[in-house]
Specification:
The complex is a heterodimer of chains A (59) and B (244). By secondary structure, chain A is mainly α. Helix content of chain A is 64%, strand content 0%. Chain B has 244 residues and is mainly α. Chain B has eight helices and no strands. Chain B is globular and about 70 Å long. The chains are: A mainly alpha (59), B mainly alpha (244). At the A-B interface, α1 of A face α2, α3, α4 and α8 of B.
Amino acid sequence: MTLGPYESFIVTSYVLVAAVVALLIVWITVDYRRQKARLRDLEARGVTRRSGRSASDMS
Amino acid sequence: MTLLDLANPTRFLSLTAKILPWLAGATAVLLVIGLYQSAMAPDDYQQGATVKIMFIHVPNAWLAMFVWGVMSIAALGTLVWRHPLADVAAKAAAPIGAAFTFLALVTGSLWGRPMWGTYWEWDARLTSVLILFLMYLGLMALWRAVEDPSRAARAAAILTLVGAINLPIIKFSVDWWNTLHQPASVMRMGGSTLDKAFLIPLLVMAVAFSFLFVTLHIAAMRNEILRRRVRSLQMMQAGKPSAS
């Protein structure tokens, strides 16, 4: 597959899209872990929901 | 499963925990198929290989507008029905929509330079999409600036609905004004003008990016629910009544 004289424009476009999508995935994954850790920390200190259910339990 | 089941955040977390891995898997498979078809698509007789930029530019541009549409429905959910997940859905969608809009702008610019001879032109289509990107950033800033979640939700919902006026302007800008941007060639009266060799990879990529959005959106909504639980527990710990 040859991309012709504008190869750099095509490759840059695809690399940029891949990088931004990867960034979104990493950001959402890290955010999830951070919120779960904060909930576990609060529950370990005895702060629980009014319902008594675990705030970090999602099953 | 009914809509009422999903209206409960705990039920939403439980249900989405089961479907999220399947959605992620389907997204990955669709992206692989779409990228393969994009790579194998022939060169355009005028544009050459740069037509391959279309397979990522157009899905991002469609989703940039679609996500704001989703946020507008969620805004109605906040203002009219006070749905417990409406503001969560809108807030979680905004950064993803901003990312798609940014990618539509940059890939369009990278496509424009070899085809039009310029990276940027202040014409109606490009400018209205830039305004959409700035509106996404403004909305995200608003959610961060207002501390009370219910006040932030109402203000963001109103701003979202006002911003929805921009969607038909973006869509019809190529018909209403003179612009460098080509007119609609897929979603138009009388059917697509694209040859199947380009249309099929484009549609597969559009479906793949739509799955990507749904997957990321559900994951971000789950995070937002957890963030609100953290805030609620912190307020309880501090002895204050929680507004969220």
